[in-house]
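Task: sequence design from structure.
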């Protein structure tokens, strides 16, 4: 049996982990659970009263999205009505920020890339500011894209709202929106790796995860950089020997972080190494990708890390903010970190040591067949806590949709020649189908109820088809050949002028390695997926084929010693003939996981497709990208479904108690606050995002709304 030491070291931070060597022989290996005496006793932080405010996106430093307010509860939920709707009026775009509320004022970004302050009781705009006069089009070029925070100030330092936008951290005056003098230059400081999520503050240290990579600490008063932790270590740094080759982008934080203010520990979740699907350029376990990392907030020193997936080639990031939880375990109250993942696991780790509270089982993983790729010997095959989604798509009646005979036949045809299986590596020109690229758990993460120890997770179950291909095409000739002229006129709008693909339209470089001339001609006639039939004149076909198959130019010189170059060729949802998910439902669920026992207590479909509901079919659930919030009133609120509704569920049973239509699909977790003795629930509703195309064309529609609900006032 292979030694467990490298696995234990990678999990707890005792060692760096090793590059894969000989394949392991044992079927399973287990990282043992922490012994009872090793568990960290609960210290009572945070105080119960802190859950009555919402001064940081996701509800506070724990990222638990729990409200202790009880005016809206199981008995009163039937009286919940729209209190106000705010339209920013500055454009229509997908906004993914959970807003914050301080002193009766709500702060949030807009679809037009402004930041606004609203009267939280009425929705009336108080001020707006535009952080970047000319924002770019990168994901990080949105103010407070996935969060912001309020810092109350201290002697000699004024209160401030803090958020990232582009390659900057901004601090603005909560009363006016004006830049805070003394914070960097004109109220901003450089963030060289960009940012999208809400940071967190320990004393005067502002901890900010980078969107490209790394985690940084700044003085929140002056903006001075204090420390930087490299999530892709180099040189002699711990973990550098888990990389063979390196990338500039990866092991990044795009879901969020949490901070234990009582212990001064910051917790950050990281994504996969990049580029996705092509791991032969960065062999090894790739620390600190796919990790939960605990850092000393004062110094940035790594205290421990826990890696879920080693050498992730499947884009199965740890996408969500960690939850700081307190649970009953081994007969005592224990402080822990709960981390939901794309593949439906919940990593439950001791908050100080990083050791798992339940045994963490790993299973021998398949070997790569692609030249130059080396998959990790073991991958997680977790039993406890119970996973909240399916782990493996199979060619069986248990998985493939039977919504209609035509739907079933359509999916069977698509997957007939695909790679299936648990952590199956990619092979050239053949699609690989698996769950997890859009969750399981997504960036919105989970909500935790500290009164019950229960975690509430909205999750997706969607199989994805991914193809990679060999690419050794010579560059096009200058001037353009007749075939390239036809391509630029007809095909480049979807597949890009350089044949590298746009969105779900696949790259066409190296096409000759995966399709024949006859197959390409057949696709022109019939279309496939989002590609319509292409009406080509007969005289256009041969020159276009010669260009696509790289026959209209001399080949590259052969180099028998050069490694084969691969590219990502295509990815798309596996859907049926009408665009609905190609698997049996549920397609989206709300899950209740008891962290005390590790058991799933209930799972209910969340959302429905109107056409299927009108036909009398069972509730299927839909994919969702907004996340849940839980209250002491016994309610779980969640939006984000394809039917543009927000819903309230009984936190004990999962029964749906209430729903309301939104002007656009909800796009971030709800928040709860109180103004003038009245409790409100507010949700971001701007539509768009990754729901587009999942059976509902209108999900591509975007807007500019925030919607607040409160109990109907008695006359």
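Answer:
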């Amino acid at each position: 049996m292979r030694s467990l030491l490298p696995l234990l070291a990678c999990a707890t931070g005792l060692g760096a982990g090793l590059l894969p060597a000989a394949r392991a022989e044992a079927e399973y290996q287990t990282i043992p659970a922490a012994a009872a005496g090793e568990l960290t006793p609960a210290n009572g932080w945070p105080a119960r009263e802190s859950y009555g405010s919402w001064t940081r996106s996701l509800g506070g430093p724990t990222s638990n999205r729990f409200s202790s307010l009880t005016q809206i509860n199981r008995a009163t939920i039937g009286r919940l009505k729209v209190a106000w709707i705010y339209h920013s009026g500055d454009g229509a775009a997908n906004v993914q920020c959970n807003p914050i509320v301080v002193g009766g004022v709500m702060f949030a970004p807009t679809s037009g890339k402004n930041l606004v302050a609203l009267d939280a009781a009425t929705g009336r705009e108080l001020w707006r500011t535009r952080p970047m006069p000319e924002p770019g089009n990168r994901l990080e070029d949105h103010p407070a894209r996935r969060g912001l925070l309020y810092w109350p100030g201290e002697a000699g330092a004024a209160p401030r709202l803090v958020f990232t936008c582009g390659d900057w951290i901004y601090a603005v005056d909560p009363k006016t929106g004006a830049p805070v003098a003394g914070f960097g230059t004109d109220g901003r400081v450089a963030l060289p790796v960009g940012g999208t999520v809400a940071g967190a503050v320990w004393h005067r240290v502002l901890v900010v995860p980078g969107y490209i990579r790394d985690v940084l600490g700044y003085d929140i008063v002056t903006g001075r950089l204090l420390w930087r932790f490299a999530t892709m270590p180099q040189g002699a740094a711990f973990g550098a020997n888990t990389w063979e080759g390196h990338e500039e982008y990866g092991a990044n934080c795009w879901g969020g972080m949490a901070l234990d203010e009582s212990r001064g520990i910051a917790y950050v979740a990281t994504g996969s190494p990049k580029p996705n699907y092509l791991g032969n350029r960065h062999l090894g376990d790739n620390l600190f990708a796919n990790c939960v990392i605990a850092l000393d907030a004062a110094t940035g020193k790594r205290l421990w890390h826990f890696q879920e997936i080693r050498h992730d080639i499947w884009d199965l990031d740890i996408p969500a903010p960690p939850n700081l939880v307190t649970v009953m375990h081994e007969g005592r109250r224990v402080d822990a970190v709960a981390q939901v993942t794309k593949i439906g696991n919940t990593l439950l780790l001791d908050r100080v040591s990083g050791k798992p509270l339940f045994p963490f089982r790993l299973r021998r993983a398949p070997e790569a067949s692609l030249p130059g790729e080396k998959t990790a010997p073991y991958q997680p095959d977790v039993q406890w806590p119970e996973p909240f989604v399916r782990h493996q798509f199979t060619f069986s009646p248990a998985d493939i949709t039977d919504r209609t005979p035509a739907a079933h036949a359509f999916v069977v045809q698509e997957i007939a020649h695909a790679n299936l299986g648990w952590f199956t590596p990619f092979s050239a020109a053949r699609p690989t189908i698996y769950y997890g690229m859009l969750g399981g758990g997504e960036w919105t993460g989970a909500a935790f109820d500290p009164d019950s120890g229960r975690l509430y997770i909205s999750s997706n179950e969607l199989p994805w088809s991914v193809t990679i291909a060999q690419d050794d095409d010579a560059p096009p000739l200058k001037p353009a050949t007749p075939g390239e002229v036809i391509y630029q006129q007809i095909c480049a709008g979807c597949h890009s002028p350089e044949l590298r693909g746009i969105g779900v339209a696949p790259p066409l470089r190296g096409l000759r390695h995966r399709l024949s001339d006859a197959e390409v001609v057949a696709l022109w006639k019939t279309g496939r997926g989002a590609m319509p039939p292409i009406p080509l004149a007969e005289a256009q076909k041969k020159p276009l084929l010669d260009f696509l198959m790289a026959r209209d130019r001399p080949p590259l010189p052969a180099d028998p010693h050069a490694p084969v170059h691969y590219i990502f060729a295509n990815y798309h949802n596996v859907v049926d003939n009408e665009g609905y998910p190609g698997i049996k439902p549920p397609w989206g669920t709300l899950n209740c996981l008891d962290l005390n026992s590790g058991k799933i207590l209930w799972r209910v479909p969340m959302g429905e497709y109107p056409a299927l509901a009108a036909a009398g079919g069972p509730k299927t659930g839909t994919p969702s990208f907004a996340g849940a919030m839980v209250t002491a009133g016994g309610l779980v609120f969640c939006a984000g479904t394809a039917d543009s509704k927000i819903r309230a569920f009984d936190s004990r049973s999962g029964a749906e108690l209430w729903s309301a239509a939104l002007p656009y699909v909800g796009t971030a977790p709800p928040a709860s606050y109180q103004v003038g003795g009245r409790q409100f629930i507010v949700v971001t509703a701007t539509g768009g995002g990754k729901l587009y195309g999942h059976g509902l064309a209108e999900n591509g529609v975007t807007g500019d709304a925030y919607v607040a609900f409160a109990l109907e006032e008695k006359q």
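Residues 405-415 form the longest helix (11 residues).
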